[in-house]
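Budget justification aside, the reviewers requested a transparent look at the raw inputs and outputs of the sequence design task funded under Objective 1. We therefore reproduce one unedited record. The lines immediately below are the C-alpha cells for a 327-residue chain.
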C-alpha cells in the first residue's frame, strides 16, 4: 500500500466528480474504479499498521442528522486511518436544536474550510441542496429514502470479493421495505449498471409505484421471487419513515417475508444473503441464518464499509488536489 501513502503522485483522478451524492449519474467505469481502489484498502486494513497519509492536513466533518452505527463509525475510522482530522459533529448538542436551518449549519461549517463533509439527513434531496452551498466535497451518507451510495458500493464489493468475479448475470433479489429504503434505490441503480438482474419482493404496501422504470422485476411472494436467486438482500422495516402501519403484524410479516432456512431453499443452492444493518432479528431475518458464515455476507459488508469509505475519501481528495494543481 506504499503507493496509497503517497497519493500526491496521482495525476489521473479515480473519480470525476466533486461530490459523491448518489449512484445515479455514475457510469460503470466510475463504480469499478472506486471498487478497485477499495479492494486495496481491504487488504491494507488487515495489516497491523493501518495508517496512511492521504488525508494529511485535510479535515473531514461527519454531520449525521439521523442515527447511525456502521456508516458514521466507518467514515470516522476511514478518515482517521487516512491521516485526516475528523470531526464528528454532535447534532443533538448543536445550534440545530436552537432552530438553525440545515443550510445555515452548512454555511457555518463551510466557513471553517473543511475538505469533505459527510452528511446524513432524513429528507430526500437535502444533501444535494447542501452540496450546492459549500465549497468542499460532500458525501451523501443517506438522504431520506433517496440514496445511500457508499452502502451500494460496499455491497457490490462484498459480493465481488466473495464470488471472485464481476456482477454480470447475477440475479439479486431485494426483499422487504423497498418503499422507504435508500439502500434499495442505490443498489437497484448500481446493480443494473454492473450487469446484474434485480428483483424486488415485498407486500404491495412496501413497494413504491414506478418500480418498472428502474428495470426491476416485482414479486409479492418469496417462493416465486427467490427462484434462482444468487444473492438475497434483506431490508429492515424502516418505521422511522412510516406514517402509520404498513404491515398487519410483525408476526405475520415474518411468516410471509422473513428470510429463514426454509424460504432460502427457494433460491439457488449456494445463494448468499446480505443485510445493510441495523438488523431486526426475527422480523425480516432469522437470527441463526444471519450469523451463518457460509451463507451470510453481513459481516463482510461491515468490513467492506471502511475500505469503501477510505477509497471514496481518497478519490475526492485526490481530485481536489489535481483540480488545484497540487500534485
Ligand atoms: N447501513 C447503514 O446505513 O447502517 P447505519 O444506519 O448503522 O449507518
Amino acid at each position: 500500500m506504499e503507493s496509497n501513502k503517497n497519493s500526491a503522485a496521482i495525476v489521473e483522478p479515480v473519480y470525476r466528480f466533486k461530490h459523491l451524492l448518489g449512484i445515479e449519474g455514475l457510469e460503470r467505469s466510475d463504480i469499478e474504479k472506486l471498487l478497485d481502489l477499495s479492494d486495496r484498502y481491504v487488504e491494507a486494513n488487515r495489516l497491523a499498521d493501518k495508517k496512511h497519509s492521504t488525508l494529511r492536513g485535510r479535515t473531514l466533518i461527519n454531520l449525521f442528522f439521523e442515527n447511525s452505527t456502521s456508516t458514521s463509525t466507518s467514515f470516522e475510522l476511514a478518515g482517521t486511518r487516512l491521516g485526516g482530522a475528523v470531526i464528528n459533529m454532535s447534532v443533538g448538542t448543536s445550534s440545530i436544536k436552537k432552530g438553525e436551518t440545515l443550510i445555515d449549519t452548512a454555511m457555518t461549517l463551510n466557513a471553517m474550510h473543511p475538505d469533505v463533509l459527510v452528511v446524513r439527513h432524513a429528507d430526500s434531496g437535502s444533501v444535494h441542496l447542501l452540496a450546492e452551498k459549500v465549497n468542499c466535497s460532500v458525501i451523501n451518507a443517506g438522504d431520506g429514502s433517496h440514496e445511500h451510495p457508499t452502502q451500494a458500493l460496499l455491497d457490490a464489493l462484498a459480493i465481488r470479493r466473495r464470488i471472485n468475479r464481476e456482477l454480470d448475470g447475477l440475479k439479486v433479489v431485494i426483499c422487504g421495505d423497498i418503499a422507504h429504503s435508500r439502500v434499495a434505490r442505490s443498489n437497484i441503480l448500481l446493480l443494473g449498471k454492473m450487469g446484474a438482474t434485480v428483483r424486488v419482493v415485498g407486500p404491495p404496501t412496501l413497494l413504491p409505484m414506478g418500480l418498472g422504470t428502474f428495470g426491476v422485476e416485482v414479486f409479492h411472494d418469496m417462493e416465486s421471487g427467490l427462484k434462482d436467486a444468487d444473492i438475497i438482500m434483506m431490508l429492515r422495516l424502516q418505521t422511522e419513515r412510516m406514517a402509520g402501519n404498513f404491515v398487519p403484524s410483525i408476526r405475520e410479516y415474518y411468516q410471509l417475508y422473513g428470510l429463514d432456512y426454509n424460504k432460502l431453499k427457494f433460491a439457488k443452492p449456494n445463494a448468499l444473503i446480505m443485510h445493510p444493518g441495523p438488523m431486526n432479528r426475527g422480523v425480516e431475518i432469522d437470527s441463526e441464518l444471519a450469523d451463518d458464515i457460509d451463507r451470510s455476507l453481513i459481516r463482510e459488508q461491515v468490513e467492506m464499509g471502511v475500505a469503501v469509505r477510505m477509497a471514496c475519501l481518497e478519490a475526492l481528495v485526490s481530485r481536489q488536489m489535481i483540480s488545484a494543481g497540487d500534485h
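The longest helix spans residues 298-323. The pocket of phosphoric acid mono(formamide)ester is lined by residues 68-71, 142, 148, 151, 276-278 (CB under 6 Å). Computational costs for records of this kind are itemized in the attached budget.
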